[in-house]
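Notes from hallway chat w/ T.B., transcribed later so I don't forget. T.B. wanted the structure written out for a chain they're using in a teaching module, and asked if we could keep both sequence and structure tokens in one place. Agreed to drop them here.
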Amino acid sequence: MPIEPITFTPLYMERVWGGRQLESVYGRQLPHPSQPFGESWEIVDRAGEQSIVDQGTFAGYSIHDLWSHHREEVFGAGYHDHPRFPILIKVLDARDDLSIQVHPPVELAAGLGGEPKTEMWFIADCDPGAKLYVGLKKGVTRADFEHAIADGSVAACVHAITPEAGDSIFIASGRLHAIGAGFLIHEIQQNSDTTYRVFDWNRVGLDGKPRDLHVAESLASIDFTDFEPTMDSPVGETLAACPYFKTDRRMLDSGASIGNPEAGRFSILSVVDGALQSAGGRQFEKGSFLLLPRDAAPLIALTRSTVLQVTLPE
């Protein structure tokens, strides 16, 4: 029998800035009929959040079970240095602006009480004119930024970009950023949940109270030389490559196949558009996420399809 892809039950997170796009665009059944859901954690291995296999040979297993007890069988050889599966994959539905925030660089994270977090965003869909806020406007100094925190004008210091669906951008630890209203984003990141908010548009959370800010930690983490970045330009099929993950965009004609790019090692597939079918007959529509085990048979595109393929460096 062919080895089939492994799929997981998503974990949905209510967020003050979220919406219902996961329902309307991907046909998901959300846990509550009206609450805003800003994040779907598709693949995660954290102490408090676990992806659980939803069917097949490993049904009911957590990803931590697979990583701890079936690592070479499922993922392949060479992954020795990580006690947990080291990447986290989400879908973000931003109907309102996220806080202006930063993640701590690796050399500072432990001293600040957090974990480093480098990530990349792929724009699956966006409203016309929707903006990302990334880096600083040219010439803004740390002193300027501190004054802006004090007088509530932080937004005026941050560089805005107006991307299109299909664009992507790499967010290294230390890069100031915020997702604006009107985006559906696939996020690939280090396995970390450390975010330092420096400004939250003077709003309150779902509990009616202002959300916590982390001004000192943010100021320590921000790269104050990161001025006016642009969206990234792919290198061939590669959208992002770093020591923590590699993300390729695969454009498949109907009938084309997609398998693991390296024999004996896994990959993760995110179906941006179109549909795939496994050797065993399972179909994966737009919005599906699947782990392709090391020896899994390739999948076939049922129609013209766009797929993100994520791999993990040794």
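Follow-up for T.B.: The chain has a mean pLDDT of 95. Might be a good example for the class.
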